[in-house]
Design a protein that fits this description.
Elements lengths: L2 E5 L8 H14 L4 E5 L5 H5 L11 H6 L5 H4 L1 E2 L5 E4 L5 H9 L7 H5 L2 H6 L2 E5 L6 H9 L2 E7 L8 H14 L5 E8 L6 H13 L13 H5 L7 H4 L4 H16 L1
Parallel strand pairs: 1-5, 1-6, 2-4, 2-5, 6-7
Antiparallel strand pairs: 3-4
Helix pairs in contact: 1-13
Bound molecules: adenosine-5'-diphosphate and magnesium ion.
Magnesium ion binds next to helix 1.
């Protein structure tokens, strides 16, 4: 059975997609088979793994909306060995609206991740959109673990309570297996007092596990998606690549 991990935070630009791509890169580098599922209509994950959206014929919108559509029919192999992607396209936004009036609407993704997918991959990573809407809820219902990237900047912890409330509700009503794997500090700049203070606050005042791994501000992390590769392939000896290898070790250790 695959380990299914959602990457969620309703704030945009906190490093969800970056964490998804690069954690996948570090896991795949170890010979693990990884599927990345793009649940954001902006399709940054799909593009960041080197897929040309113009060539995508069937996407998550099909897998979620059509009862007979199978995940395996939409999956594309990427140029990074070991990583496949279930791509998103713009029409995922209207899929979310259509799902709203569907019975079992919270379970569409969980059902799409069928026995074939569970058996075919070691890790299935779900990149959630920057909302607490139905697509994110589908991601959390389908997952057994959630990683929450948090920017080590002002107001970063604001809004976390709302996300935690949703996670608690999902755990009690829809998915008992959901576990918060941890908060992942991102965009860290050790030169700023604010960054260090935010990190301390996360570690000291929170109820949630915080990963030891800290993802620093790194220009290369912004460049790698343009090359359509995880940082582990794009700049294999960089500190950022090593950060994600360390994160992969922590995630594997969590089981
Ligand atoms: N640690 C980092 N250092 C520098 N740039 C980053 C870092 N993490 C992400 N980025 C860049 O910041 C932008 C937002 O990150 P992204 O992962 O897309 O956030 P989200 O998916 O939460 O909206 C992207 O352009 C990404 O390449
Ligand atoms: Mg994103």
């Amino acid at each position: 059975m695959a380990n299914v991990i959602a990457i969620a935070n309703q704030k945009g630009g906190v490093g969800k997609t970056t964490a998804t791509i690069n954690l996948a890169g570090a896991l795949a580098e170890q010979g693990l088979r990884v599927l990345c599922i793009d649940m954001d209509a902006q399709a940054n994950l799909t593009v960041g793994l080197g897929i040309n959206l113009a060539t995508v014929e069937r996407a998550m919108s099909n897998a979620l909306a059509e009862p007979r559509a199978r995940l395996r029919d939409i999956i594309i192999t990427t140029k990074t060995p070991g990583i496949d992607v279930a791509p998103a396209t713009l029409d995922l936004a209207s899929t979310e609206v259509d799902l709203l009036s569907t019975i079992g609407r919270e379970y569409a993704l969980a059902e799409a991740i069928d026995d074939w997918a569970q058996g075919h991959y070691d890790y299935i990573m779900i990149d959630c959109p920057p909302t607490l809407g139905l697509l994110t809820i589908n991601g959390l219902v389908a997952a057994n673990g959630v990683i929450i990237p948090v920017q080590t900047q002002y107001y970063a912890l604001k809004g976390l309570a709302a996300l935690m409330k949703v996670i608690t509700t999902i755990r009690s009503k829809l998915n008992r297996n959901l576990r918060v794997l941890g908060l992942l500090p991102t965009f860290y700049d050790p030169r700023t007092v604010l960054g260090r203070e935010m990190l301390d606050e996360m570690r000291e005042n929170g109820d949630n596990h915080v990963f030891d791994t800290i993802i620093r501000n790194a220009i290369k992390l912004g460049e790698a998606p343009l090359a359509g590769q995880p940082i582990t392939a794009y700049a294999t000896a960089s500190e950022a690549a090593n950060n994600f290898r360390e994160l992969a070790r922590e995630v594997i250790a969590l089981g």
